[in-house]
Design brief:
four-stranded antiparallel beta sheet, Neuraminidase, about 400 residues, single chain, about 0% helix, mainly beta
Length: about 400
């Protein structure tokens, strides 16, 4: 039986004369912030944001975030990421992190608003991210002290070994693809936004084109997840913990022994959320066998109660090939997962929900044309957003 999902409200965000795509959301109380990319017909791309002060019912006019015009570099797995950081007084600080041009490669940039999204300060390089080669697939999270942490994949090791000429080809196979040996030159980095000298590499051997995930617990503990290239060319989801504000992370562990062997990058990373009782939820796609014995993609969910070990994976009910999952914790202690799935030659957005207590995820009746969905929880609804032909589509969803 599918959950009935009621569309309480729907709005579309666009920037005139531009193509809007690649949305992220953040929410705190009644404040919901959307950030996305808007590109001209020539491909010049900037980052924009819009803020709702009424739980996603209405949104303000789009405000440009990126100060260097036309230089943002985005795609679905590299959308701009938005966080809401506690402020001593007034609304939370809005901090947005995205990928742009660096001096000798790409770099992460950030901008901050202290006035509820009316204006943003000048763009600044995320410390340690302006290096040779490419990087991206970033995540960001604000801890309990209001410190914003960034996580990203980094190819400076590739640039160093290739004399700054990169040979990585994601989504392909063969000698120049993202094989096991080449993956050792790809690293996972973290840094504190706005704080020089805090960048450090957590590990190497990462799968280079899958988004990363970063969340902070109420006590400030940081949890990171990404796709790692394990011995034998296995590309499974890895996980690490920092209990000292990102200064150090634990040795990576596997979330699940999926044993997906692939000499290419799936362009499909994990997502995480912490529920109301402190359990950590991870969702991710991986290869499985269909009933007929053919290889296909499945979407899976696992829970950790101790930040070290995970429950056995449970399959999320999907239809078609699932990609690009996101997850949010709900106000009642459950979680909602959003993803896009390909079926019948089209791509649609789908949802599943698990109630408080860790029950199985149940697919919702709500599906819609679109791709790369995201979702956040307010006190009285789930606010979801995705890209469709009209731009950034946003809905408030009530669940029954």
């Amino acid at each position: 039986m599918e959950l009935l999902t009621t569309i309480a409200l729907a709005v579309t965000l666009t920037v005139p004369a531009r193509t809007s795509a690649n949305v992220s959301l953040a929410a705190e109380g009644r404040i919901v912030v959307a950030t996305w990319s808007a590109a001209t017909a020539k491909g010049e791309t900037d980052i924009y944001a819009s803020v709702s002060a009424d739980g996603g019912t209405t949104f303000g006019a789009p405000v440009r975030v990126s100060s260097a015009a036309g230089t943002a570099k985005v795609n679905g797995e590299q959308a701009p990421r938005v966080t809401l950081a506690p402020a001593p007084a007034g609304p939370p600080r809005i901090v947005i992190v995205w990928l742009g041009a660096g001096r000798t490669g790409t770099a992460l940039l950030s901008a901050r608003s202290d006035d509820g999204g009316k204006t943003f300060g000048p763009s600044a390089i995320v410390p340690g991210s302006d290096a040779a080669g490419n990087r991206g697939w970033q995540a960001a999270a604000a801890d309990n002290k209001g410190v914003v942490h960034a996580l990203w994949l980094d190819h400076r090791g590739m640039a160093a070994s290739a004399g700054s000429a990169e040979t990585h080809t994601h989504g392909a196979s063969g000698p120049a693809s993202d094989g096991v040996e080449m993956a050792q030159k790809s690293a996972l980095y973290t840094s504190v936004v706005g704080r020089a000298g805090t960048a450090r590499s957590i590990t190497s051997g990462v799968c280079y084109c899958c988004k990363t995930a970063l969340v902070s617990a109420p006590d400030g503990t940081l949890f990171a997840a990404w796709r790692q290239v394990f011995p034998g060319g296995i590309r499974d989801i890895a996980f690490a913990v920092s209990k000292d504000g990102g200064a150090t992370f634990s040795a990576p562990v596997k979330v699940s022994d999926d044993n997906w062997k692939l000499n290419a990058c799936p362009d499909d990373g994990p997502a995480m959320a912490i529920d109301a009782v402190g359990r950590l939820h991870v969702v991710w796609p991986t290869m499985v066998k269909s009933a007929a014995g053919a290889e296909t993609l499945g979407l899976f969910h696992a829970i950790s109660t101790d930040g070290r070990t995970f429950s056995a994976r449970q399959r999320v009910p999907t239809q078609g090939l699932p990609h690009h999952p996101q997850i949010t914790a709900t106000a009642d202690g459950g979680v909602v997962v959003a993803w896009d799935e390909s079926a019948g030659g089209s791509k649609r957005v789908a949802f599943a929900r698990a109630a408080a207590g860790g029950g199985a995820l149940t697919r919702a009746a709500r599906v819609a044309d679109g791709s790369y969905p995201v979702a956040v929880s307010t006190a009285d609804a789930i606010v979801a957003a995705w890209t469709n032909a009209a731009g950034i589509h946003i809905e408030r969803l009530d669940w029954r």
